[in-house]
Design brief:
With 447 residues, the chain is an alpha+beta fold. The chain contains 13 helices and 23 strands. Strand 17 and strand 18 form a beta hairpin. The chain binds glycyl-adenosine-5'-phosphate.
């Protein structure tokens, strides 16, 4: 984990929040590369669960919601963790985070556990009284449930269908840590998939498989993922069944995403608190039914950490070590780097022209500082799949060299074929690469 934290800091993926003030515990800022990686993860998720499906639509609900939402959802009463405090060093702990009854830090005596509600409270408007209390949402899910009727009426979707949402959530966690793994402000990617009661088990199994495949298709090694079914005693208050997708983080196996069968709990609760009907008319039986809900709920930050950990690699490189991120091209913050072999004006002009052109399609870096070897290493370290090198011969023959991150294979191709070749490679097409000195990839014709 130290290597991941250090790389993230050094290369501008993730910085401690308010760093010049000494930081703020468990809060992190995403830097220029981190923000691209995060956007790419969210985009890949949205593409898979919304864009490519006809049974899903999106939503972006507000963070602040009517306070009664949290009564109906059970969060006001039930969203609590057992808190203990050390009588000697006064550190506070979540008592189910460790075994035994002494302080994990100093061995001191602990207080009896008391339940601590994890929701952040604030006030709406200028008067800070009980009537103006609102909460920062601890999950994005509730925004979806309360909009079930709106979406149903405006989209005319039929069961089974789902609503997807990406957004910030806040939990006043007692213990945070392991970098961005557990923080108090984080982002979720949640699906609420509405199904006919009786088909819920089938859809639960379907979504477990779908979500597992999503991580594998984006490059996470299958052996670093496992499914863990919740025991009766650990099920959340709303869940009938739940399975976690765990990832083997540097600190051990831990939850990456949870898939829950929430039954009709949420729609029934909101209907009973509001008096509004949150039912669905079943054409076959001509009856109003309350759909059951299958909820795959993933963390953006936790996924980002898993993608970083899984991609991180070190390879011997003569006297040194080549650090590289084997990020999937869809996730890589920078897709292509344009590198003129030297800073000679004619080369810089040609390389900058190319840089401007490629930037129309992708996030592209331009780098002309230090040796070409060092520049390749810099790009490897941030996971850039391809470097394009412009050299003196390029000015004569209008060809450039593409160098691939993972294999370090190089190939010269006509500059006019660069965009299509890069597009094909970035979308995962298995182009045949000739050995160094070869002319063109498969499908590209004569060089
Ligand atoms: N709506 C269901 C729900 O919120 P959850 O298991 O509490 O379920 C879902 O949260 C996902 O949100 C987790 O699997 C994790 O990826 C992410 N998550 C939850 N709490 C987090 C925290 N304190 N910091 C970072 N990510 C968190």
């Amino acid at each position: 984990m130290e290597k991941i934290v250090s790389l993230s800091r050094r290369r501008g993926f993730i910085f401690p929040s308010s760093e010049i003030y000494g930081g703020l515990s468990s809060c992190w800022d995403y830097g220029p590369l981190g923000v691209e990686l995060k956007r790419n993860i969210k985009q890949a998720w949205w593409r898979t669960v919304v864009q490519e499906r006809d049974d899903m639509v999106g939503l972006d609900a507000s963070i602040l919601m009517h306070p009664q939402v949290w009564e109906a959802s059970g969060h006001l009463k039930g969203f609590s963790d057992p808190l203990v405090e050390c009588k000697s060093c006064h550190l506070r702990w979540r008592s189910d985070d460790f075994k035994g009854d002494i302080c994990p830090s100093c061995g001191g005596e602990l207080t009896e556990p008391r339940m601590f509600n994890l929701m952040f409270k604030t006030f709406m408007g200028p008067i800070e009284d009980a009537a103006s209390v609102v909460y920062l949402r601890p999950e994005t899910a509730q925004g979806i449930f309360v909009n079930f009727g709106n979406v149903l009426n405006t989209t005319r979707k039929r069961l089974p269908f789902g609503i997807a949402q990406i957004g910030k959530a806040f939990r006043n966690e007692i213990t945070t840590g392991n970098f961005i793994f557990r923080t108090r402000e984080f982002e979720q990617m949640e699906i609420e998939f509405f199904v006919k009661p009786g088909t819920d088990k089938q859809w639960f199994d379907y979504w477990v498989e779908e979500r597992l495949n999503w991580y594998v298709n984006l490059g996470i090694k299958r052996e670093n993922l496992r499914l863990r079914q919740h025991g009766e005693d650990e099920l959340a208050h709303y869940a009938r069944e739940c399975s976690d997708i765990d990832y083997l983080f540097p600190m051990g196996w831990a939850e990456l995403e949870g898939i829950a069968n929430r039954g009709d709990f949420d729609l029934v609760q909101h209907a009973s608190y509001t008096g509004k009907s949150l039912t669905y008319f079943n054409e076959e039986t001509k009856q109003q039914i309350v759909p059951y809900i299958i909820e795959p709920s993933a963390g953006v930050d936790r996924s980002l950490l898993a993608f970083l950990c899984d991609a991180y690699d070190e390879e011997p490189d003569q006297e040194e070590i080549r650090v590289l991120l084997h990020l999937h091209p869809d996730l890589a913050p920078i897709k292509v780097a344009v590198l003129p072999l030297s800073r000679r004006e004619s080369l810089v002009t040609a390389a900058k022209e190319l840089y401007a052109d490629l930037r129309q399609c992708w996030m592209v870096n331009y780098d002309d500082a230090q040796s070409i070897g060092r520049r390749y290493r810099r790009q490897d370290e941030i996971g850039t799949p391809f470097c394009v090198t412009v050299d003196f011969q390029s000015l004569e023959d209008n060809q450039a060299t593409i160098r691939e991150r993972d294999t370090m294979n190089q190939i010269r191709i006509p500059i006019s074929a660069l965009k299509t070749t890069l597009a094909a490679k970035l979308s995962g097409e298995d182009l045949f690469i000739l050995p160094p000195g070869g002319q063109i990839w498969k499908g590209g014709g004569e060089g």
